[in-house]
């Protein structure tokens, strides 16, 4: 129902924009830096070949490896340990105001000449939170009782998520501010799209690899079956 409602709102508003919004023809059109798709890709390759951009892309593609497992797997492991999915979903609700306020606060510190300083400062704290998340997964089955989980457990999870959001948004806003700052205004759209795409890719591929490695790295024991290992999916099924 939630998705259907906002999907309908999205369709209505975009249709109204298409029908009712008129272009301002009095403005002098700015000369575009590219004429077509071929020119755009040539421009992209010329940007990528710049030593500073290449180094930055390599750094940003690997910067999030350290906390990929904590980000991608923690929620799934908590559900696996018996935490109801709907309870975890409810914990996301108090995060919404925080997610709105955080960029406003962080932007004050990323508006200066060195926006990546915020990125550097947030990184060790986010790495430490990865250890805290691992402790949380280990602690979860120990506090579980017949009625579910105590209130203090959910308070700890909520605080952990809140701290994680602070570090996450500090890094996110900082990298967006840096991308905006270094992009050449003449080719701003192409330049920023490239850097933001690399930044998004740098967050997605480590999470995918982390999820893929969960099964091979998980130690399993078979209960009630002598001389039977559960190391592979087929053995576990048997």
From TrEMBL:
GO terms for cellular component: membrane. InterPro entries: AcetylCoA_trans_1-like, AmpG_permease/AT-1, MFS_trans_sf. The chain crosses the membrane at residues 6-22, 43-67, 87-106, 118-139, 151-175. GO terms for biological process: acetyl-CoA transmembrane transport. Its main location: membrane. It is a multi-pass membrane protein. GO terms for molecular function: acetyl-CoA transmembrane transporter activity. Keywords: Membrane, Transmembrane, Transmembrane helix. Pfam families: Acatn. It is found in: Membrane. PANTHER family: ACETYL-COENZYME A TRANSPORTER 1, SOLUTE CARRIER FAMILY 33 ACETYL-COA TRANSPORTER -RELATED. This is ACATN protein. It comes from Brachypteracias leptosomus (short-legged ground-roller).
């Amino acid at each position: 129902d939630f998705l259907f409602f906002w999907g309908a709102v999205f369709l209505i508003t975009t249709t109204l924009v298409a029908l009712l919004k008129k272009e301002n023809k009095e403005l002098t059109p700015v000369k575009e830096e590219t004429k077509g798709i071929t020119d755009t890709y040539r421009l992209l390759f010329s940007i990528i070949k710049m030593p500073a951009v290449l180094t930055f892309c390599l750094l940003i593609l690997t910067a999030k490896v350290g906390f990929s497992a904590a980000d991608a797997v923690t929620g799934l492991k908590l559900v696996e340990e018996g935490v109801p999915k709907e309870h975890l979903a409810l914990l996301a609700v108090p995060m919404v105001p925080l997610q709105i306020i955080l960029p406003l606060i962080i932007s004050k510190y990323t508006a200066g000449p060195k926006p990546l300083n915020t990125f550097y400062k947030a990184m060790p704290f986010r790495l430490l939170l990865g250890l805290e998340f691992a402790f949380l997964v280990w602690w979860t089955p120990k506090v579980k009782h017949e009625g579910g989980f105590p209130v203090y457990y959910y308070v700890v999870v909520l605080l952990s998520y809140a701290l994680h959001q602070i570090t996450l948004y500090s890094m996110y806003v900082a990298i967006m501010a840096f991308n905006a700052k270094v992009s050449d205004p003449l080719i701003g759209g192409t330049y920023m799209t490239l850097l933001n795409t690399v930044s998004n890719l740098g967050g997605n591929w480590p999470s995918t690899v982390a999820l893929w490695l969960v099964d091979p790295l998980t130690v399993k024991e078979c209960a009630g079956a002598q001389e039977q290992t559960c190391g592979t999916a087929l053995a576990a099924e048997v």
